[in-house]
Amino acid sequence: xxxxxxxxxxxxxxxxxxxxxxxxxxxxxxxxxxxxxxxxxxxxxxxxxxxxxxxxxxxxxxxxxxxxxxxxxxxxxxxxxxxxxxxxxxxxxxxxxxxxxxxxxxxxxxxxxxxxxxxxxxxxxxxxxxxxxxxxxxxxxxxxxxxxxxxxxxxxxxxxxxxxxxxxxxxxxxxxxxxxxxxxxxxxxxxxxxxxxxxxxxxxxxxxxxxxxxxxxxxxxxxxxxxxxxxxxxxxxxx
Amino acid sequence: xxxxxxxxxxxxxxxxxxxxxxxxxxxxxxxxxxxxxxxxxxxxxxxxxxxxxxxxxxxxxxxxxxxxxxxxxxxxxxxxxxxxxxxxxxxxxxxxxxxxxxxxxxxxxxxxxxxxxxxxxxxxxxxxxxxxxxxxxxxxxxxxxxxxxxxxxxxxxxxxxxxxxxxxxxxxxxxxxxxxxxxxxxxxxxxxxxxxxxxxxxxxxxxxxxxxxxxxxxxxxxxxxxxxxxxxxxxxxxxxxxxxxxxxxxxxxxxxxxxxxxxxxxxxxxxxxxxxxxxxxxxxxxxxxxxxxxxx
Lengths: 239, 296
Description:
Chain A is built from nine helices and ten strands.
């Protein structure tokens, strides 16, 4: 799905989190929002997911204005920074949650839900852990379960907030490959937030460098590396 | 490499410590245990035993018979009714207040937190007087209510209001710190997965807070059944009509009917113990879920 961000701005009280920013995300792209903390990248991601309301501007999904569209209706698969798995539910129930939450008319039958959950567990290469609770999983496993849960609703896009933030270096590298693989096999437009430039450069088709609530530069990783457009980008990349 | 000469090798002094390095000496532990047990015995167990002994002083038949009297039965019924109305309402208000405080940012949040604590700091007698002032026959509102056949003061509604005022903080106080710690990410996740607000509350929030909620409800239930001061002011102490168990106990005691007074007191204490026992039993039965979430 094509995402068009048109002059989106956000203020919290007197704090400006985002100055008006515009960005076009082509359908099927894997995009990184890269920047230090406080650069407004997470705020922008949450606006796309409908978890924050923009103060001004609009977001278009495939040309349709989403202003005022409820979170539930966006069908944005969201992976939270600390995964936000439902701690009192098993892995199976976590992944099935979105399917069970559907209105009766479009809710799949029990057997179909089980089939889909098991297929997703295979996709994240964790078959057989459906009966465990989130507290019994490692950080990397939790992250993959969160991804499967987001995929279960057959989303129109994937939004990930610092998906590898809380993991050690080795697991990070494995999971980057995992995300790339899932993106390539599903073809979903995917936006992830990161403060790690290596992660952004290695994984993304398109990197959006942000600072202080503004977009500094948008481009392919190689372009940005070769021709940093602002002093901030130059400095951020060499840091 | 040369071998160090013997006098340079550091040998640890030989302590007589039999306990681990982070543990207190044995005598400290024994002393602490003894103090706790002594305080428990004097402050909690002895009074309970005394009440029971006094109640059963003339045999359990006499004690039971005193509880079977008309006025005694009315008092028990009234106390249970008041608790049955006040506690669920306070549970709902407590959840709503905790939700407002922990999930949103808004002006006046600090004021609400202070207001919730008000019943802890205001004397129950003052709380009762406030109800009388607001709803008594001499106030505009009270006069209107009485004229329309719905008296509040010296009637059950007043007792319920006073009890609710006294027990308001318990549920909210239990929930606010827990819900603050849990944050709202899981709730947001439920919404992005398509759940309605109501479904999110039932399937995500409620299971996360249920043990704290249960604990708050049990505490407020115990307090609702035992409240004396505020109820004494608003009830008018009409025997058989507006006398709750604690008020009945006082009246019986003042009339030197000690078996009746202590039988009622023993029953009231028992009701509180039953609620505590219920909580323990529930915790024990759902130990696996508690391990997955958080024990209170």
